[in-house]
Amino acid sequence: MTSSFSITLPEITTAMLDALCSHCMQENGSVETCPHCGYNALTHKDHPLYLKPKTLLKNQYIVGKPLGQGGFGVTYIGLDCWLQKRVAIKEYLPSSLASRDSADTTVVPFKNQADAFQQGLNLFIDEARNLAKFDHPHIVRVSNFFEENRTGYMVMDFLDGDNLAVFLDKNGGKVSVEQALDIILPILDALSAVHAKHIYHRDISLHNVLLLKTGVPILIDFGAARHIMGEHSRSLDLVLKHGYSPLEQYSGRGKIGAWTDIYASGALLYHLLSGMLPPAATDRFCEESLQPLTQIAGLQIPDYLNLAIEKALAVRLEDRFQSVDEFEAALLGKPFIPLTPPQDTLESSEELGKTQEDTPTSKRQRLIWSSVLLLLILLIASISYYRPFTAPIDKLLNTAQAQWQAQKLTTPTGDNVYETYQQILRLDPSNQPAQQGLSKLADYYQQQAIILKNKGNLTDSLQLVQQTLALLPQYPALLALAQDLNQQLANQQKQKHLAELLIKANHERELGQLAQAYQTYQQILQQEANNLPAQAGLAQTADAYITLIKQQTNSIDSTRLLQEALQYYPNHLELLALQKKIINNQRLQTLLTQAEQQINALQLTEPLDDNAYNTYQQVLNLDPDNPNAKAGLLRIAEQYERMARAERQAEKRSHFIEKGLKVLPNHTGLLALAQLYTLPAKPTPPQPTPPVVETPPPVDTKPEPPIKALLLTAEQQRKTGQWETAINTYRNVLALDNKNTQAQAGLVQIASHYLQLAREQMAKNELQQGLISIEKGLTAQADHADLLALQSEIRQKLTKQQADKANTPPTSEDNKPTDKPNRPLIFTPSF
């Protein structure tokens, strides 16, 4: 009988993704600010290299915010939807070899870097596979690994804690001996486990040991693949951490083993106890500069612990502990006993057990014979020491000279200068000609490497130096040259990468992908702050935004583009001026539309707070030459002319004529009607009509109001809070004297009053009342910048509130709300 079962995978819906906080990966109910961690999703800005939050991998893992990035990859917080737990997801993305396609999530190697990228990807997957086999309490657990988006991913446990660098910052920069051992001993236990499988960490440092909130240390971020990739790309930045890296890691042919991690562990322990990083191994090779812990003021370190750390930090790998267990025993001040004693030791023990018990006579005999044997050994050693080796050494020196002339320096095997000098030094370790010959050999290869370097062949030069160091590792000049070449190659690779990014950014700008171009230029400047082409590209992108905004025929599109541009260039003067112009144009359009509706409703000059004449006056205050407003005033005057001609009652007809002439005093049709209807002679006995010149025009029959009296009235009205009436009075003064500074100052003060009132209403969330106050202020001063800006801000808030309430996208500023519109309160000067 066969049984079967199936696993039902959770359905990952859009609603589920929306309700997830990308910072802590907990459900936040789709609110802007997460109630668990306080993260505001609106502050997030996409990075061109990172996966976007809420990206789904393998239909199982949801990607959140990046936890960290190095030259080798990016690590994100994530959610395992199957197990419903948080994880850490590491993505293989070496920034020197590849970038992310701007159109999707795939990773694309740079030109000529595809092979190196693929080699690194294979190493990344192999490392994940090896680490997944470990289940150690002090090694981060790898639960899954896979390939997607043309790259690789490693899924690990999410660890809640700080790395040791952060821990030290929080604890004064150093810790006690007890605390340090509580951290380092579990890490050594973890290293012992991985060393048993011939896996070496290669990158132990403060940043790669995590201390959980429970106090448990965890070893993270194994660097074997990174080191191999670093050696491939000649980038020391990927491979080395000065102070932690032993001498063998400075050469591509250095012998890596347990002693490599022991050196870095010793450096880590030294840093924890002293608060200082040991000097770089290359510096110590030239001159020992490591200060013993026992000589540092304020530290109380046991001698055995100091000696153990110094041995772990020995420059020569042969002088270090050869196993982690031996190092651990020394740290505890205990003798190291190997688990499997040497075979010859066992045999000697057995034979010793079989010997008879020594007698006093046999002891004396053995002592005599031992003394004789010792004297013989010393005699033979003395004879051997003083025995001349001149003949074979001279012959070898002559051979080396002939090999020099034949340029047999390191090849062929068995017949070259290097092997001959080594043979001499085995016979006579202090032989100066041989030592000088090896120095000459190192100098020769150094000069050859410098020649290649000067020709620009940095890779070949570095390869030659590394080959020489494999034979002659004790020459500081070669080590320094190797480091310099590595740095130059890294800079060369960096410049190549920056050049490719610049081409990409320029191409995006030419295609009109301005936001992507801006981000790519910024990516360049993050790596090289003074990159002039990138700075020029940013300026050209701003100009392209301005051109594109001006080309838009739709106000919604132009506003959207302007907001996007100001997000990147918030202080750009021309963009700010364009913003002010667009706001003015939008207001002009709103006023013109409003005036058109008022004309259609025959609200020509009345009511006081809602008429076409006042609306057109506001337009002319913003744009004195606006043709639509001038045409609108003409239409109002013509409408009054038609109404006057159609009216039969003399009093109403005169009223229409007077209204029209107040709108356009020089309107010929209205002037003719005024002449025809409003200037007849009084009913008296028939007399000749007096000359027209003797009768003043009707419009001049009223005495002109004195300006002083009007100003006093307006001032009194303003002081008593009759703001709207004061506006009318001040405008009457300006109608008589359009440059009257007292009237202009009065209107400015009234506008400032309404600005302050609107701000208070906005603070109380009385947004509609705030808009009304702003419109009153604009009646006093139509171009008041602060009022216009506040009006735009309140309208945006109202639009958002309406959109949230209706659960629909917010309407544009140009679209009118569906309920009754808020008409601006407009006041007409009295006629």
UniProtKB/TrEMBL annotation:
What InterPro entries would the database entry show? Answer: Kinase-like_dom_sf, Prot_kinase_dom, Protein_kinase_ATP_BS, TPR-like_helical_dom_sf, TPR_rpt, Tyr_kinase_AS
Which segments of the protein form a coiled coil according to its record? 475-524, 578-605
Q: One GO molecular function term?
A: protein serine/threonine kinase activity
Record domain Protein kinase: where: 61-337
Sorted keywords for this record are: ATP-binding, Coiled coil, Kinase, Nucleotide-binding, Serine/threonine-protein kinase, Transferase
One protein family per Pfam: Pkinase
Q: Where does ATP bind?
A: 90
- Keyword presence, Transferase: yes
Cross-referenced SUPFAM superfamilies: Protein kinase-like (PK-like), TPR-like
Q: Where is the composition biased (Basic and acidic residues)?
A: 351-360, 813-822
Residue ranges of the region described as Disordered: 341-360, 797-831
| Compositional bias (Polar residues) | 799-812
Which PANTHER family does this UniProt record tie to the protein? Answer: MITOGEN-ACTIVATED PROTEIN KINASE KINASE KINASE 20-RELATED, SERINE_THREONINE-PROTEIN KINASE YBDM-RELATED
In its UniProt entry, what is this protein called? Serine/threonine protein kinase
